[in-house]
Amino acid sequence: MYTWTRTANIHDGKLQEAFVWAVKVMKYINQKYPGMNMYVARNVDGPLYQVRWFATYDSLVSYETFRKQIESDEGYRGLLAEIRGQDVLIGTSIVDSLYERIS
Fold it and tell me: Which of 22, 26, 42, 69 falls between 20 and 30 A from 13, CA-CA?
């Protein structure tokens, strides 16, 4: 089992916009890709101006298959274009991580 996360820092004063958009992306992915169970979380402790997406995959193959699909998804690309230029997320702060479950 693999868990993927994407973390993005949020510009000051843009929490509401960031969380609304993050949930919109999550809903789009969960509806468009049956079997996906992505969710969005915010820090309760630590840096407050961050948003995180989480998803799990059964295998590296399923992860890679999804990554290729989403990269060419016009609807997803439209969601990315929607947020760019609004100074909501700090582009250089976006980090993807992939974790393998060991127990």
Answer: 26
Domain membership of residue 69 as a residue range: 2-100
**Residues β-bridged to residue 13:** none
Query: What pTM was computed for the model?
Result: 0.90
The CATH number of the domain holding residue 56 is: 3.30.70.100
Residue matched to tokens 């509401």 = 16
The sheet with strand 95-100 has its strands ordered as 39-42, 50-57, 2-9, 95-100
pLDDT digits (tens, 9 = 90+) for 2-43: 999 999 999 999 999 999 999 999 999 999 999 999 999 999
